[in-house]
Amino acid sequence: MPELAVVVLTAGLVVIVALLTAAGAGKLARLDGATYPAAVTRAAATFAAVLTVAAAVTAALAPFFS
């Protein structure tokens, strides 16, 4: 059971970091003069990129922990 808790908490932390990064990217885009749709698009792309990097790191490190 503790392993499941670690996985769930880690996944939650990754999602929170991705959301904060996306919010920052959207805010920076808006401050740069982008329209709201363009800022949301940049934020969504950043969110997807953070999740993709997290998945790639997990896949790369999985053989070392199993």
Could you explain how this protein is built, in words?
This protein has 66 residues and is mainly α. The protein is built from 2 helices and no strands. The mean pLDDT is 95.
Radius of gyration: 15 Å
Unreliable spans = none
Mean pLDDT: 95
Q: Please give the alpha-carbon distance between the first and last residues.
A: 17 Å
Main sheet, how many strands, which sense, barrel? none
Number of discrete helical segments: 2
Could you estimate the helical fraction of the residues in percent? over 70%
- The coarse silhouette is elongated
Q: Could you give the order of the helices and strands?
A: HH
Task: Provide a brief overview of the structure.
This protein is 91% helix and 0% strand. By secondary structure, it is an all-alpha fold.
SSE inventory with pairings:
Layout lengths: L1 H30 L4 H30 L1
Defining traits:
2 helices, mainly alpha, 91% helix, 66 residues
